[in-house]
Amino acid sequence: MSTPTNHMPTAELQALDAAHHMHPFTTNDELRDRGVRVIKSGKGVFLKDSEGNQILDAMSGLWCVNIGYGRQEMVDVASRQMLELPFYNTFFNTTHTPAIELAAELAKLAPDHLNHVFFAGSGSEANDTNLRMVRTYWAQKGHPEKSHIISRKNAYHGSTMGSGSMGGMTYMHEQGGMPIPGIHHINQPDWWAEGGDMTPEDFGLARARELEAKIEELGADKVAAFIAEPVQGAGGVIVPPSTYWPEIQRICEKHNVLIIADEVICGFGRTGNWFGSTTMGIKPHIMTIAKGLSSGYAPIGGSIVCDEVAEVINACEFNHGYTYSGHPVCAAVALENLRILQEENILDHVNNVAGPALHAALEVLAEHPLVGGMNVCGMMASLPLTPHKETRAKFAMEAGTVGFMCRERCFANDLVMRHVGDRMIISPPLVITPEEIDIFQTRAVKALDDTYSALMEKDMLKAAS
Ligand code: PXG
Fold first, then answer.
1. Are 181 and 199 in contact (CB under 8 A)?
2. How far is the CA of 298 from the centre of ligand 1 (A)?
3. Which of 191, 246, 257, 296 has its CA 20 to 30 A from that of 18?
4. Among 325, 343, 361, where does a domain finish?
5. In CATH, what number is assigned to the domain containing residue 186?
């Protein structure tokens, strides 16, 4: 078999999948019993499954297909590059044109002081690079003890030992010996769930000042870096209050702590600028990139590094790298993606067309009796579900039960919305049109109505005491 066969009956594909394929973040036995959904193709913002359903993908795959599915230009570039040079490494005094051009293009697009790129195959790998790079930076400067990293609870930075440890997902830490030593987590700026009676502004300041308290507890001479997503994605699209990031920036500058902005979701137009750091007013030393860098057409990630850190790292041998660092096919595909984003003015589309239309649709959805508000930044959003709008109450049953019910009803209505706990997540391809946003709204209302009816029927619309 030279190419995957696309015409086996669904049941056979499901049986083969269950027999041989171990899915990430999945209880595979349960999935086998439920039957996996087989996705066959994609065009624009729509997916087609093996039963022929046309599903609107309001998650861009996994927050990544920014330019939409099915772009012929991406295919052409990949095939040309595969013929010309499918692989060569960048380890031993060699380089190649796609890696050179992509690094230069990223330096042009990134904020002024960020001019150097270390490539990886994914966001997780890039964050492992960052962990070693900031520690090496301080060690080279004569401060090897300045090695601790501060991150946040409920952050997502990847699934490898380093990135998973920097992430703040406790259910990940429970398996396999994470977090590794030297990583600390402070609370997240989630006003909706944790702000209580405070104003968002006061809450934002209070949460930022937890960073200062943690730095003082550890000693500023021990803290290498603070890592955070400009807007938390996998944690539930948590848009920080306006006071949060300016205070974080002040604290990091005061205590000489590097800032790693994890732009894996926020980068490449998702928040309306090239990078979420610009949207949030952050001046990072390193930005983690992946996902939207290639719109998911090829696996590639990296770290965009500031002049100051690069100068120190470039002066030593940094014993780190991946076979596929700067992979020529992936780099060529990423370059083509950046060309499309620029030539088709997709950021203007986000800011003037799709963003406002999505905002309007979310305002309608936020009126639904099951929805307790909305968190939105550009083209990423979440709708927290609640049994009681006024008090932002949680449900009486285990967190995620209602979110999961809603996700299943979205799928049944040919819509992909992911759930994080009891929040519904929206992060569609940036190229989505207002007409497609109307379809999204109609299907989302139907899914919310269906969830609401099911909750009423089962007497589950109860708040936790
Ligand atoms: N940083 C951030 C901010 C991410 O969102 C990573 C790093 C890791 O990237 P890789 O390419 O190694 O996966 C991510 C990935 C979800 C979900 O369910 C989110 C991610 C990955 C898988 C699932 O929301 N984000």
1. no
2. 15
3. 296
4. 343
5. 3.40.640.10
Residues 321, 398 within the same domain: no
Residues in the chain, total = 465
User: What's the CA gap between 242 and 281, in Å, rounded?
Assistant: 10
Query: Same structural domain for residues 430 and 327?
Result: no
309/401 same-domain check? no
Closest CA to 377 of 260, 211, 265: 265
Assess whether 302 and 262 both reside in one domain. Answer: yes
Cα–Cα nearest to 152, from 139, 165, 134: 165
- Ligand 1, atom 20, lies closest to the CA of 234
> pLDDT, tens digit, for every residue of 226-239?
999 999 999 999 99
302 and 388 co-located in one domain: no
CA of 436 to the centre of ligand 1 (A): 26
Cβ of residue 128 lying under 6 Å from some atom of ligand 1: no
Residue nearest atom 10 of ligand 1, based on CA coordinates: 123
Domain carrying residue 424 = 44-67+345-457
Q: How far apart are CA 221 and CA 148, in angstroms?
A: 9
How many structural domains is the chain composed of? 2
Question: Domain check: are 193 and 212 in the same one?
Answer: yes
Tens-place pLDDT, residues 427-457: 999 999 999 999 999 999 999 999 999 999 9
Task: Give the distance (Å) from ligand 1 centre to CA of residue 158.
Answer: 5
Q: Within this chain, do residues 335 and 352 fall inside the same structural domain, yes or no?
A: no
> Domain boundary at 284, 311, 343, which?
343
Pairing type for strands 54-57 and 46-49 reads antiparallel
407 lines ligand 1 (CB under 6 A): no
Residue 26 C-alpha to ligand 1 middle, in angstroms? Answer: 15
